[in-house]
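User: Hi! I'm a student and our assignment asks us to look at how structure tokens line up with a sequence. Could you show me two examples?

Assistant: Happy to help. In each example below, the sequence comes first and the structure tokens follow. Example one:
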Amino acid sequence: MDKNSIFGIILIAGILIIWGVIQSPNKKELAARKKMQDSLALVSRERPNLDTAGKYIRSDEPDKPVVTSDSANTQKLQQELGEFASFATGDDRYFVIENDMIRLKVSSKGGRPYSVELKKYKTFGRQPVILFDGDSTQFGLNFYYQNKPVSTNSLYFKPADDLTHDATANKDSLAMRLALSENKYIEYRYIVEPGSYMVGFNVQLVGMKDMVTRDPSSLDFSWEVNMPQHEQLKKNENQYTTLYFRHYKEDVDYFKARTSKDVQQQDIPTQVEWVAFKNQFFTSVLIADEAFSNALVKSTTLPEESKYLKNFRAELGIPFQRLDNETVRLRMFYGPNKFKLLKQYKEYKLQDLVSVGKGAIRGINQFVIIPIFDWLSRFIGNYGLIILLLTIIIKIGLLPLTYRSYLSQARMKVLKPQIDELTHKFPKGKELERQQATMALYKKAGISPMGGCLPMLLQFPILFAMFRFFPTSIELRQEGFLWVKDLSTFDSIVSWNHYIPILSNVYGNHISLFTILMTISTILSMKLSDTTTSSQQMPGMKTMMYIMPVMFMFMLNNFSAGLTYYYFLANVITIGQNYLFKQFVDEKEILRKIEEKKAKPVKKSKFQQRLEEMAKQSGKRPSKKK
């Protein structure tokens, strides 16, 4: 491995280290976070329990008794809510509408989605995956009616009809209604189809054109969710949990998940097509058929001791024409962050919810890695073997670059004795003359100093693409291989509960075997490739070269086992390739060709030839090239 290759690797390592330092909160931020946690803890003690279990309407158990109010409370509610006062109290009932993919539980309070279960997935603790649950959710319209502020989230709806099935369209629907009279009501209708994660959601407004909102042409709609933890390590999952949104017919935008800010907020005065609350592997999306007129979105990181990751909130403007009878058509996607699945909704660009990088990195993942991965998945069920074959395919594709890099190193190796002679000829104090003589030697030999570095740098986009692909690939989630129980998270072989200062923060409270194997194979690969450098040329460079893999070991200990397994395989294959190259590359023949090139006169460039021709025409003798 030549000096330029080592410098390129160290540069990348330096960037990653600086990035890690920047992401770490300072003392002031930690103090502010502690203050916020104390405040939230105080609020949580004053709030009702979020885990109150509900009863399904189709069970044989009786519903909760209706909460009765005395005359004083009734009068107070009448003053606060007007005609809607009678809906402020009621019985908590729950209705289920489902298909083979999801189980949507709807509450009579607010007529809102109370919880959503994804039937084909389990949490790391083997519990059902619930995207959101209970009273941690807010979902409903906010408006003024007869000068009274009304929020449907806190009012009790009643089913407009039983769960209905449309045999023609093969759809199930559930309607929840808030009815002031037969000709004046608000209705939420939920529609599910077999085999789909998409839920139709229609808001029907009958006789409600006198509602008052901030914007006469839109209704205010609130959506708020506390995101629960599903994966093994909360810190890791939080790095991929964030809020996304798409500007109408434009690009998808999002809040940074890896940030020291506990609160992020954005006011969007223009049209928004959808808003998504996303964690590492699952997402809830609210989509408007005709776009929301505006939006205010907010993300809040919750305390470390909370069972939730973050709180997401969206205030959305729904177009409102103020007709006697109008229906606003929305959709809700509740499902996995699976690129192939989300690409089915490419008109909404939902595939952008999968974090596969930006620019060239995203292109590599989208058009190379993911198609190959999906193609292999059609024939092979073991994802450890799929990663092995994927690695082999990639290494074969990169073989020309790898060979050029090795050949450049071999050329540098045979020139090393002559480079050492120049080092002795131009001792300390004559560095400029030494560099000029070295470059002249390279030029005569026809060797580019960047010949070994450039092919290696061209491979870095692949390494970074894998860095983004594996931790967010839901296909690897809970897939085992060898000793690994879950390729989407770290493969702990030893763990401990005690906090160890610095070590626990930087390395974690476990040892990942694939990370250790990756580190060992990286050091071995470097050692076998270390044929063109010397401590005399680059004091301390060798030490730094071997420290770098240890630094990566600390950085990647908490990452996906699939990622470190890939890096380990790539190192092993590289070692094998270099061994084969060594059998076919004759260093004596390389030196003979270099000496032949050195003996030939240096060919003048076309630019220099033009300069000489111009000089002849002007009657001047061109200067000789030194």
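Example two works the same way, sequence first and then tokens:
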Amino acid sequence: MLIGLIKEKVAIALKDLYGEDFDPKEFPVSPTKPEFTGNYTIVLFSLIKSLKTSPDKLGKELGEKLIQNNTQFFSEYNIIKGFLNLTIHSEYFISLLNTHFDDKFFGKTPMTSKRIMVEYSSPNTNKPLHLGHLRNNFLGWSISEILKANGYNVVKSCIVNDRGIHICKSMIAWMRFSNGATPESTGMKGDHFVGDFYVKFNDAYKAEVEELVGKGMEKGMAEKEAPIMKETQQMLLDWEKGDEKVLELWRRMNQWVYAGFDVTYKRIGSDFAKTYYESETYLLGKDTVEFGLSKNVFYKKDDGSVWIDLTADGLDEKLVLRKDGTSVYITQDIGLAQKKYDDFNIDQSIYVVGDEQNYHMKVLKLICKKIGLPYADGIHHLSYGMVELPTGKMKSREGTVVDADDLIDEMISIAKEHTLNLGKVNDFNPDELDELYDTIGIGALKFFLLRVDPKKKMIFNPEESIDFHGFTGPFIQYTHARIKSILRKNEIDKAELSMKTSFMPIEKELLILLEQYKHILQQAAQEMDPSCIGTYLFQLAQTFNSFYAAHSISNAESDEKKQLRLKISSLTSIVLSSGMQLLGIKVPEKM
């Protein structure tokens, strides 16, 4: 990787010049801005104080030393206001092309022994997946693949929230209002079917509360006394006692939902090596609490409840066991964290969870560290912002959430409309067209949700996401298809390019971008941010289109130039395809 190599060479040159050892990480190296001459720029300011010299003097001495030490690597340098701009010999990029122009694994790192679990999706079995779940799934899946590309052994996992009062709400509503209907009898997808009854529960609950208030009851009391809510609370108690009739209905309705989830997961490409169910894990963690009590990490109040005091850490006191001995969510999460470690011996556990759980995740890691659990330092919360629509926030219980399936259907429909308007698909058969619309629609959805820094909240606009000329998935897909068309019409000579082959400026700019792919993959893994790849791919596609507009490939001025441009095109198509795959996006061979 060129940036790392430059840093190493700079450290050696500084040692030669000043007799001091420098950590290559101490000085930043970045691509030179287009308005300046050079390929890579070293920021000198961090070195000036320790070396007690001026920027110009340091830049001149360092630039000359770098060229003296590396005559086959650096060709020239210039200094501009504390920045040393270096030009890399063309031979480096010729060698890069000769070695990697058809390398399908370009930029990726061989597998290491480090094992990481990525937990994502975390659906509830009382409703279908929605737009917020899509961002969660796309982030979790993409981060998993990015980590794999960086050599890590990744285990994808999911925790399904399949028990609790919210699940019982759908069950009670089905018992009251379904007249025995099923997904099969209604022709509905199972998760949508159950989700409708969750909305029906809320409507009935509101009506009952209003009726009680109308009879003179205070609203807070009415919310507690509403018959449908009391039935639901009793059902939860019956479930916890193991009432077989309740369990039978619970299993039946959950299976309807799981069947629906599986269809959606298949459509969006999500997969899991391990699925945990809250109904099987909610009792975990009590042994760990007992261990923490013996170590005086927790303390017991007079009523028998168990707590931890985190005020010295800037947090608060946290309940970990109720006075009746039942667990709370943090207890279950501690137990599940231990189970993950026991099941897979993981070095790191990444939780893809919305930013409304920032505090909870901070408490979880801190408690695990205080107990001295071996997996504590490896807990990482990949926090992400919520997705909103131009119309505002979504609410499941009010039925205002955008279902994932409905949104996917809309995206495919928009993709079809835009594609037909371009009028370039006359040679596609009906099956190929359906696959193309699916590829473009779902690709646009994924790219739009992944191109934004995960930490930021975002507004999703379906029409904006499918623009064949903007910062979108379809623009990159179209560029890839264009390159594949060029490569189908022209044969690449396997013979190596001459080291004396010259470059036009845009050709070298494109090669510099291609060379940075491995660095971008490392950055995306370190920052756990797929948007690094999305932004890079967009820039690469833009640069290729500028290159293609400026220089002919099929009718190049010489065969040498034609082969150079074909090999640049080949490597560009590989990187576009590879990068989009890490975002979970297919790239078509033709569009």
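Here is something you could point out in your write-up. The chain has 23 helices and 14 strands.
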